[in-house]
## 1
Amino acid sequence: MKEKISERIKELREKLLYHSKLYYVYDAPEISDYEYDMMFAELKKLEEENPEFFDPVSPTQRVGGKALDKFEKVNHTVQMNSLSDVFSFDELRDFLMRMEEITPSLVYSVEPKIDGLSVALTYENGVFVRGATRGDGLVGEDVTQNIKTIFNVPMKLPENIPYLCVRGEVYMPRENFERVNAKREAQGQSLFANPRNAAAGSLRQLDPSIVASRGLDIFVFNYQEGDLNIDSHTEMLDKLNDLGFKTIMNRLKTSNHDEIISHIEKIGEMREDLPYDIDGVVIKVDSVAERRKIGEGTSTPKWAVAYKFPPEQKKTKLISVDIAVGRTGVLTPTAVLEPVRLAGTTVSRATLHNLEFIREKGIMIGDKVTVQKAGDIIPEIVCAYPAERDGSEVEFNMPTHCPSCGEPVFYDSEEGAATRCTNSLCPAQLARGIEHFASKDAMNIDGLGPQIVELFLANKLISDSADLYSLKEEQISGLERMGKKSAENLIKAIENSKNAGLERLIYALGIRNIGEVAAAALAKKYGTLENCFDATVDDICEIEDFGAITAECVVDYFSHPQNRDLCRRLIDAGLKTEAVKKQLADNFSGMTFVLTGTLPTMTRDEASELIKERGGKVSGSVSKKTTYVLAGEEAGSKLTKAKELDIPIISEEEFLRMIDIPAVNEEEFFEILDK
């Protein structure tokens, strides 16, 4: 009997592997989804009833498993470098000429650059044993269980190769991205900005079953190390394809510079029709031996570059302009567009910033306009086409009264040409203010998004942020989208937020011009929320980087009786409103850090907190004033800028060494760091 069960399990596994490959690799299924699901269910049942036949490479092991507490670190035996970027064909020709000054008549591989997340896949004796993220190139995270959910990753190779490590790019197909975002929207969750962000966020989930539901995919694009002896990169990819890996398509092997550029243009033309996102084309020296001769840079190979496409642009029509009222009362115009596919998503709205921007661009309602995504994330209008007008176009003007409350608005020329509502009790400002109060960088009340805030306001359960701390589970559990478990979790999150601390609370209050850094500085100077009530402009201006306008915003906020009343109610609700005095080394005093990419073991928020606790500053952009750039996995344009300005770039490991240095003077600090 057991022998028959064993044979049936083996048969089902082989069939499922065969049909999985037809479906996921070749897009040529031979059976229906129902037939596949029935085989899968039978196999799963047989394995559960007969645990002695467990096999880690069985198809059933791909769809989840126990959630992890954290990801373990993985040291890469071969550094996973990033690539230097070029943005024009002139820069590309310069690279090719440099290569051929070292070695004449080189042959290159030209291939699309998938916009995803790099991973290393390791096999021992032909069996998949580990998947790790790139991390900082030297140290990544063990995401083996999550990688198993990607059906294009073979669990067992057709050849018993003793050791093999390959590099691939995990991505989310556009179709799956739309599906995932539609589901998140229906559940009131924030949407992923683009497929790359969705892939990165999914692969770093601690629960593999969530990863399995996202439908990630992978292209393998490089041989890292192992027991294969092939000198040509192109031939190596062909070999990896034979071993069952899904390798990058639309490749060209050539030594002709004009053919390289022609192929890049061809890939650019097909970019929109691909089922996945690409952000450029990689040009690599094909010979592994020649690569060794050319050598490696500190964090990028000298024998390869990535040609980056300019932002994708599309022409569409501006149908109308909507006005949104922000938490500080600023009226922001948003263009409503005829929907157009752009950089992986369907775009139907774009920011118009303010009236000055609209006048500068010469935009009218009804115009044909070109739209692009700034940084491939935020849709913006590039230009309009006045020559194509037919006379039906209408000039846009900002409203004279707030669309939310009907009160008059005024033009605030001192603050970025903003049009602002004068009513502090404006419903739109109230909702946006509560959303800001609950946001991740403020009080971090998980589950209290825009839709839930609107729900509570509509049911008159809250009228400001302080009312959140009076909510009871029974009040909200019967509301739409708020079952018993959701209500329980939200009340718990609200209670936990009481311990967020003074600097987060000051930021959460939504004082104009007060960001996270300024809030931390105020908390450090005044120590308690009540001490802020009597702060003067002169006192506040003594804080480094505080000017008169920012100081006046603080004084103005705390001078209003309704704001003081809100603060006192927050104090009475039990929020921690005193700054925590931490006895830490102040070695980062005077230093400015910029964070980029995904760090191996901590979030950027956590790293920022460590920097600020030790007297340092965190900036969002790289400049000559930047002391260090802390770079993690998939670092972007900030890393490129740091290299251009010769700013020191450090890994998380180096950063943690700096954290551990005791309180010493500046000279001793750098002496220790250099050791």
## 2
Amino acid sequence: MDADKKQTILEKQLKTLSQKIRIDILKKLKNAQIPLSFSKLQKEVLGHNLSTVNLSFHLNTLKKSELIFSSEEGYTITFLGEQITDKILSIEEILNKQKKTRMIRTSKYSKELFDMSKIEEYLVIEGDLERHLARQIAHEVEERLSKTNIDYMTAPLMREYINGVLLENGLEDVRHKLTRLGTPPFEVFQLFDSKNKELTPGGFIKRLGSDVSEQFLLLNLLPKNLADLYLSGEIALLYLNYWSLRPLSLYLNTSTLIDYLFKKYTYNPQNNRNWAESNNLIIHFMDLLYKLSEFYSEDLLLGDFNTHFLSCFEIPKNNSFNFDPLTSQLLRFNTHFNDDKSHLSLGFNNKGELTEDHSILNQTERQFLNSLNLQCRDHIRPLLIFKWSNNLSTDLGTSFLKSFMTDSINGDLYICNNNYSNMLNSTIIQISNPNENKIILDKILMNLHTISVEANQNDSKFLELVQDKLNSIFELFKYKENLVQKKLNSLKQWNFFVSEIFDQKFDEIFRESIKSISFFGLNEAILNHCGIELDRTENSEVFSLKVLSLMKKLIKERNEVDNNNFILSQPHYDSYLKNSWHNGISQYKQSINQYSSRIIRSESNLSIKKKIVLYQKFQKIINGGTLFIEKISEDEVSFQKCLNLLFNSKIRAISFRDCFTKK
């Protein structure tokens, strides 16, 4: 091709590109992933000025210059058009640099010259975007900035520009990956100015860090469909800030800890009546509990606490051991978590034999509990879990239980049937073998009320939705197991506990952990679906049992297929019960303050006998942990007879929270 002809082609192309709208068309088509229709291109390029420009004329001009072509799908840029557009963008970049120098304040609190190549690298490395697309987005960001009068940029403002361009180009997934974590300044100011006298400087920092951890989980670690289930209130996740970092709870038989301490510090069990040695044992015991506290969120349940730890302090008759140092340390332990909850549960295993002085508890146990009760008035006490025996249904048992019936104590006592080997932790999860140490990986709860609303009184739809939500919960447990295992297995202290305390293999401890699946809003769901509460009509009762039976069946099938350890357990007292989406007025215009952890609603008019019969039906299905927490009315039958009814039934565990009202 001779020089004159080349010159003619160049002049023709330059003339074609002499109008800004044509360059804008080329840029839009270059960044588009698919062909753009005329109407789409018109809207993208002209915005609201549709009548001021003849877009067809400009498109035909570009087609004649072979810079774009059209098809039935729409308009697309040609290879030649792409190359020329790249050159135009390079020229614009040179002119912008010549025009002004722009500074940016980075997230590292330093100032540096604006560099478009860093946007490209940011999109490739953090957004996992292909290089050519990252370059296109970076050019478009640079072009927009060139039209502003901003000389001094901040990193958050730059991210807003980038995110806006990504969304306009249909790259929402990339924008999602680049979302920055943090608490909005307004909320931080509110927290900073809070009049909450319990919010210490350390609590302030911990609160902000928790917010970031929660956002990281929902935005980056969980897929969007699973995160949305939590955000919409369809499921409840506990301790969201630690969800990806550690298990929910631990169960340890106290003998494991005592054996370890005796081995490490060469204690002689027969010699612990020495005061100095006893106090050293308390110090080392509490130090071990504090180290373990880094690796769970809800509670550490110590089985056989009385027989393996308190027995180390057994004393001769008519003497006493000062348990105040121990009980004060146990009460202070809960404040370590800074959330006004108990994070320690103590299991007492009484075999049903009376002591020499005809008491249910021996002298050491009585002195420990007396010390604990005296000091607990301004502290959060541990949850006490007693295995009951026939002696609890005697006058001695009644007297013992009544001693716990105070406002500050009755919620912190569970009674477990000694005919069963199991125990419960604070989240009502059953420990089937108290002699075997276990990790409780998590408890994930399904909102049955939201399911009932979506099912719209269609039984098949209700059960189908239960199955769908259950499959999502199984998937969530996979994420939880992988995330926690990845985090903890890299920690030296955790590896020590696995080998020395749990005595298990690293690759088995999480697979064999307890994975609790639960529910909430059962009574509200049945009322909404059947039109009447489950304790008032047989149809409601039958359908509620059918729902839970389906959950049990599906859990059993998953365990058999995956060789896993999922269990179905009862809901428990916690913030998810009051922070649920439906607080306010239900569709039946009834005031609802929060969901209840009771299976049988507290307003039920059933007698104690009928409540027990109904509860046993649910207990048979919910075999991974149940707790009878219905109210006991003294007007109906004496407290002694109530205890006899409960203890002679097959109810496995009882809580006296709100059950007994003193006259």
## 3
Amino acid sequence: MLKKLVDFLSGWPMTLVGGAFLLASFILPRVGYPAGEKLAWVCVVICGIPLVYLSVRRIIHNKGIAKISSALLISIAMIAAILIGDLFAAGEVAFIMQIGALLEDMTTERAKKGLKNLIALAPQTGRVIQDGRERTVAVEQIRVADTVRVLPGETIPVDGVIRTGETSVDQSVMTGESLPVDKAVGDSVFSGTINRFGAIDIEVTKVSGDSALQKLIRMVEDAENHQASTQRIADRWASWLVPIALIIALLAWLVTGDIVRGVTVMVVFCPCALVLATPTAIMAAIGQATKHGVIIKSGEALERMGGVDTIAFDKTGTLTCGRLAVSDVLPMTDMTPDALLVLAASAERLSEHPLGKAIAERAKGMPLMPVCDFKMQAGKGIQATMDGRAYRLGSEKFIAQASVQLDGPARAALEKLRGEGKASVIVADETRVVGIIALSDVLRPEAADVVRRLADMNTRAVLLTGDHATAARFFASKVGLTDVRADLLPEEKVQMVAELKRRGTVCMVGDGVNDAPALKTADVGVAMGAMGSDIAVDAADVALMTDDISRLPYLKWLSNATVKTIRKAIALSMCINFVAVTLSVLGVLNPTTGALVHNAGSCFVVLLAALLYDRKYEGMRSIERTD
């Protein structure tokens, strides 16, 4: 019941009502209505009850010095002002504190739907084959060693091993790989991944609760539960301010014999400027970041970003654009590259495979050849007849099935392309290899410059990817990365981030569902917001809505500027407090005038923090050119 009352009183509507009555209590006595001073009781009740509740709760639940908070000091000042009959001063300090708390809540509110989205990926049913008959059952009823059939386009419901059939599986949910992985009898498949082509029967090796996807869900839950919140700057300072304020107030009372001076010291010593400075600076910074397509979800993340000394990048969809494109067209005969591309695209335009679609996209606008006798073998390649000749397009194994062998130049070209982490489609007629078309993920043009600018900020970059080591090293060399960790499953990414955290403060940048646990584990998680999964965006502390990683150096600069602004505000508030305390001890200020000086100081601090909104980043021109 008390908690509900506190929640009701501490919201914006009631706080503004309290502020209106406080203003009336100040104005009315000065225009001939002395009874108007009593209106401050409304503000004291509305803003004071949540304040006292918070200070008592922290005394009960916090440990050690953390029991002493800014709320405790302001509660003491409010009660002291009430005892000497200065209701305006009591209401003023409570109102300022409540406004600060509301501003801070606005900067730290986080979306909680990410885990629900992740759980939604888990299939609910599966086709179990028993006694030659197929029946659909709830995934919880599937047992180890059962045979489960998965049709093309369906999500694999459990972890298992293929016993019948061949296909290509989209494993991006688990590994982040941009290419579907060809699977045959004996290969393992995972729950939550998507069967792209052929029908397969799998023998179940892990039931739903132990599957790879459920492990991924549990990792996100654990990281969410164990993520410690940053203690507020005002509360850290309050641990020192409360005893100092009490000692000075008590001495002022004992030495002068005037309790009013002691109460005035308590009023002007309240850290309201600190309470306002932090959320105001953070709101200004978050507002500026939003203008440039960077969504920052919490003030803690913004503060931590300034201390980041290591940024770990995922590869696919982060350093790369996450889409396949033809990178090399290599004829092995006297055929021209354009002629080879037209030949391949003519056949591949009928294919559903991502490699085929990318080849057809590259040849868009070119005159294609008529095709007949088109056949596709899932996970291997395609056959087609064009211009009276039969052609095969696919893997080396698929070409070898037609008794076509690779000669020296073709084999050397394939080895070179593998070393660059590229996927290759071999084009052969009935007797020889006529060419090779290579495809690769597209590297983001700004990636190398971002790595260089981060190095200038004394921040090292690391690549953490589920891709093969060869592809990872090739892309890393293109952007100037030397620290590469490849072939990582989601849990291994989490382990790597935890290892990096033991050496410093880590930011993880990723875009896929598989990155969500690592994003949660890192000190700061940054997700690619435009093309990244909803789960990655919800798991992260920051989202880059334009998918432009050149925002990362800007984000680090903004964090540093915010922390510096907060520190300046703290220094200014301390100076104002020192002068106000001196004047209070000398009797120049009373609780009411002290509250006004205290209020003016808070306004100065808020103005300083708000100016951060228009602060300019020296690298802003390069960012604006990418918009």
